[in-house]
């Protein structure tokens, strides 16, 4: 009887240990995704909840969460203390509280503008329904709401623009980079162009792009306005170089034995690229894509500001020109938003890099 009881207890302990091991395996698999998305602090919390060594996990939590929060708190304290001491043409530099208040105001403005748009369309539908009921269908007109873009609308425009420019840059840079990595002749022909055009500022590209797009894009659509195309092409010209260079480097650095195996098997060039070259070069390609997206986001703000194209850059410039007592705080809201969006874009690319490559570096 004692042996049976001990055996049952042993089986329960073994099953409990097995469940715990499976739980920790799932946590470890999830850890890289939390890390990629900037949520590394979730992992030690899950491990503590699962019964791991609390002291060890508290140390990890301190490293990934507490210390960064302390750094942010010290920055906010220094900002709040120093800001009122600096007087500008727009008044004293706003502190964190004033900036937060303007962020709330911008959100309220967005909601009010959406409510105005909804009311406009409701009145339009009611008027047109009345005309149709009276048999005056020929007088029915549908108009789009033409209210001022809100801060969130400007963010959406900037994200759409940088996404379009980044997509074009990727479609150009990756194939050219692969060709450069596979062929020394192509690399020799393209490399001088890279060295010449890579340092060119977006402020130099913008007038050229504006004139060319204006000459070629004669019938712009409502979904793809000319201003968006100009900004997107400027982003493309400035952001394609990191992807091109890293792609060429990644392709040129693959194991030569893999290339020789492809030749022995008499694989066609497209199959060689798809089966051998791309899997080996993907880590460096994604590194280039992350750099390109970061460059594109920075370039876009400058292009929008200079060309007065819709987006966050134009919002910053309009607030600067406005010169009201709230303008400086709103500009700082935009600066913080630009930084946070840039961080999120990088995290998204890093998550994709983790998903599609065997090894990824931060």
From TrEMBL:
CDD domains, per the entry: TM_PBP2 (cd06261)
Subcellular location: Cell membrane
Entry's Gene Ontology cellular component terms: plasma membrane
Residues annotated as transmembrane: 64-82, 155-179, 200-218, 230-255, 276-307, 327-345
Record keywords: Cell membrane, Membrane, Transmembrane, Transmembrane helix, Transport
SUPFAM superfamilies documented for this protein: MetI-like
Family: Belongs to the binding-protein-dependent transport system permease family.
PANTHER family according to UniProt: ALKANE SULFONATE ABC TRANSPORTER-RELATED, MEMBRANE SUBUNIT (PTHR30151), NITRATE IMPORT PERMEASE PROTEIN NRTB (PTHR30151:SF7)
Name of the protein in question: ABC transporter permease
Source organism: Stappia albiluteola
